[in-house]
Amino acid sequence: MRYLSFALVTLGSLALEHLPPIHYTISRRGGSFPAPDIANLTYLLEQLRVVEQRYNSTTRDFIGNKVVRKPKRPHGTQALSTLLGDVGRDGNWLASLHIGDPIQEVDMDLDMLTADWWIFSTSSGKGSFYLDFNSKTYGKTSLSFRFDAESPLSVPTCREPKDIIHLPTIKRSIPISFALCRPAKQWVSTLLPSGAYLGLAASTVLSQTKTVPLMMQMIEKNVINTPVWSLVLINGKDGIFSIGGTSAPPVRRAKMETDDELARAGNHGMKRDGVVASRSAADIEMEADLSANEWKWSKVQGAEGWWQILMRGIWVDGSKVLENQPIVLDINTPFILAPPVAARAFYSSVSWSRQLPPPYDQFHAYPCFNPPKIHFEFAGWNVEVLKGKREQGTFSPGGRFSLGRMASGSGYCLGIVVESRMGKGMSLGTEAANMGFKTSMEGGNGLEDVWIVGEPFFRDVQVAFNWKEKKVGMQRV
């Protein structure tokens, strides 16, 4: 947290040839993912089902000769008003949205699997609230000119108004349009929490409201001029979400300054005259800026919609055990999910590991005091992941690779790499079969051979997403 507070002091003044990025502090709703000494298998299996449900809400389809991801068509009288995403769900990463005049603070969930920017308003009394009738600037493009404040959308119960949002770090306020959705009073969705939702998917093909994305509006209004957003996690419950660039230089600069300060404090009195050698401000600035250029970029591939890239290799204890594995990046998944064949190949390289019996056979255990040393390889760049200790206040000898011990006194821990069962057993779509595809395209989610690289990865790597060029950049945290 000390790095985070230092970084945010300097975030708004770091533009060189580009406009400065906008930086939000983010947090995980409900706090860090539970890390008890003894694993709760029932809870872990429930969380795994939640993840699978999020991914199974979409399917693959064709637009011309292009394979894309689309929301599944739900059934029932309320089907057309159902949007992808779960406002207020525990485990979502969120930022604070400041909107309207006077300013209202609304929790804004981030979701890398959806593409819409919307505010959900219910009568449940749960969540955080945006009261349009309390805002003097609601429905206005400026303080003096009005526009059609209630443009209808393709989703019933949603309208497209405008209001002023107040941007942190750059200290600007701008009018932005968004989808405002209110379910009918007799509908079950009125029992859900209120709040805002920001879809961060790689393509607008997943959009249901068909409104202009938030970041595109920021580009149009010359608030940012770099089509990039990024994420970095400081720990299991705090992080930084940046729009229009990354937080790499200030975070690195803050870390260097903090390390120097701690070194001076720790060595005070040990040196004659109390002087401890440290880097100059110029040295720190140069080192931070050089580090900011160490990005490794990969092109997005697969069905258009999500941030899917190719992981060139997976290394366990110095040996390459898998190569050319497609992965989807998703900060709201608390595990690293692997296809069954890949997961078993991975654990076969971990000494004395074993698969649990049903119904927990998606999990594998390994000797707690011998956690594997894991590297992920991207575009010729190897980065060690899942290293270090678990969250402060918890203990497990398995470190960050562990979900907890099997039982009290057990020498075995559950590994955070978990088998995925998504995409199994789906039939081949007719059109896809005619085109020569050997796996389901139409009617399936295409995840039978795909890894889901979740939240634990974002603790080791800062990730940047270029939505215009459709590429993903990575840099060691």
UniProtKB/TrEMBL annotation:
Annotated ranges, domain Peptidase A1: 93-475
Keyword tags? Hydrolase, Protease, Signal
Q: Which GO terms describe its molecular function?
A: aspartic-type endopeptidase activity
Q: Which InterPro entries match?
A: Aspartic_peptidase_A1, PEPTIDASE_A1, Peptidase_aspartic_dom_sf
Q: Which GO terms describe its biological process?
A: proteolysis
Q: Which SUPFAM superfamilies match?
A: Acid proteases (SSF50630)
Signal peptide extent: 1-15
Q: Which family does it belong to?
A: Belongs to the peptidase A1 family.
- Protein name (database record): Acid protease
